[in-house]
User: Which sequence fits this backbone?
């Protein structure tokens, strides 16, 4: 500690180390939060169901996606990324996951929502296995922190089925 | 700064930063605001810098006693025998 710049350097290094410690504690405090989210999806209409020029099945549907993700937010949450995936099984793949819609929730105020939309991304199969197919609609979310560990979880909603022929 | 002052400055720096960090974290957590935590801590870093980094007088309360310049004449520096050693080897 024998000169101005020596002390300034020591102070700055210690200050940044302590800041890193505070951020680690903030991230650990997220584990104290026990979230209780809820979600519900209804398929309102199958708009069209065709075989594309490449020979793959493709569906367009209108859905109502509603969820309450307010309990996921903590003081250390920057945003929540949420997406809806259709999941089903085919002879070729034991699990197919197709993302149909996604969104970013920037704060707790926007976390309780109800969205009436067609699928944002194509619901396309690798092949033509979709006729009369049972599928789950799973709402996944990633809780992105301001600092530290990111948490991801999901809610699986079962009981959806595609029509048994093209329309 | 004298030696005591340097120790005091280092201790003050560490204690002040940790104290501000604790207050900042507690306040931020209680209010649920990450930004408040960072602002309180940033203010704390500035305050600590102002208190511990400049050479304030209270860091120099036990000043070192340097010898008076007149003392050096009483105790002359011994001559380093460079020229005498050269003479020795030349003779041999």
Assistant:
């Amino acid at each position: 500690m024998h000169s101005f710049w020596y002390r300034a350097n020591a102070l700055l290094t210690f200050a940044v180390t302590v800041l890193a410690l505070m951020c680690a504690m903030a991230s650990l405090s997220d584990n104290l939060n026990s979230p209780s989210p809820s979600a519900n999806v209804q398929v309102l209409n199958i708009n069209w169901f065709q075989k594309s020029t490449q020979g793959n099945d493709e569906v367009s549907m209108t859905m109502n996606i509603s969820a309450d993700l307010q309990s996921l937010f903590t003081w250390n949450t920057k945003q929540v990324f949420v997406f809806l995936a259709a999941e089903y099984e085919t002879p070729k793949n034991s699990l197919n996951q197709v993302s149909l819609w996604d969104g970013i929730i920037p704060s707790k105020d926007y976390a309780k929502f109800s969205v009436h939309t067609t699928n944002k991304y194509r619901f396309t199969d690798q092949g033509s296995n979709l006729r009369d197919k049972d599928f789950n609609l799973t709402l996944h979310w990633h809780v992105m922190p301001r600092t530290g560990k990111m948490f991801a979880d999901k809610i699986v909603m079962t009981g959806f089925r595609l029509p048994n022929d093209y329309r | 700064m004298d030696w005591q002052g340097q120790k005091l400055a280092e201790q003050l720096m560490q204690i002040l930063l940790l104290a501000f960090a604790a207050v900042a974290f507690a306040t931020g957590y209680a209010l649920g605001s990450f930004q408040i935590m960072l602002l309180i801590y940033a203010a704390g870093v500035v305050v600590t810098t102002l208190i511990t980094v400049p050479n304030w007088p209270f860091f120099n309360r036990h000043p070192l006693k340097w010898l008076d310049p007149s003392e050096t004449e009483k105790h002359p520096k011994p001559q380093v025998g460079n020229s005498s050693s050269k003479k020795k080897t030349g003779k041999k």
Observations:
- The mean pLDDT of chain A is 93.
